[in-house]
Amino acid sequence: QVQLIESGGGSVRSGDSLRLACAASGRTFTITSLGWFRQAPGKDREFVAQIMWRGGTTLYADSVKGRFTVSRENAKSTMYLQMNDLKPEDTAVYYCASGLPIQTTHKERYRDWGQGTQVTVSS
Predict the structure, then answer these.
(1) Within a 10 A sphere around the Cβ of 52, how many other Cβ atoms?
(2) CB-facing half-sphere around the CA of 33: CA atoms within 13 A
């Protein structure tokens, strides 16, 4: 099993940037991909981005393409989400999870969810 802990959330203004981190521990050698999801109040948890752990291939939701960048630092077993030009609609709790060795946006195909980190963007 892999344990994931998110950090880096906060309250910012529209147009600002934040960088989230997802630190993995435990059986990290089993990681094949990691993903970012977010959940706003009253809404379903939605896919944000995914990165393949070995090759670094990435996948993004259309709503964040061009603004968010997912990366990883294998030596530290850590994934990052650089979020630029933040908008009020980006306000949500952001979660990371362990995924499959295929590109997928379906939350049912992820496991080992972290506890989340709050991102609040005001206009």
Answers:
(1) 19
(2) 22
Give me the residues paired with residue 47 across strands. Answer: 37
Per-residue pLDDT, averaged over 30-46, amounts to: 97
CA 105 to CA 116: how far, in whole Å? 18
Burial (CB count within 10 angstroms: exposed 0-12, middle 13-18, buried 19+), residue 99: buried
> Nearest 5°: phi and psi at 109?
-95, 10
Question: Token digits for 64?
Answer: 């964040």
Q: What is the mean pLDDT of the chain?
A: 97
Rounded CA gap, 47 and 82, in Å?
15
- Read off φ and ψ for residue 115, nearest 5 degrees: -85, -10
SS3 86: coil
Backbone angles phi, psi at 87, to 5 degrees: -125, 160
User: Residue 39 and residue 53: Cα distance in Å, rounded?
Assistant: 24
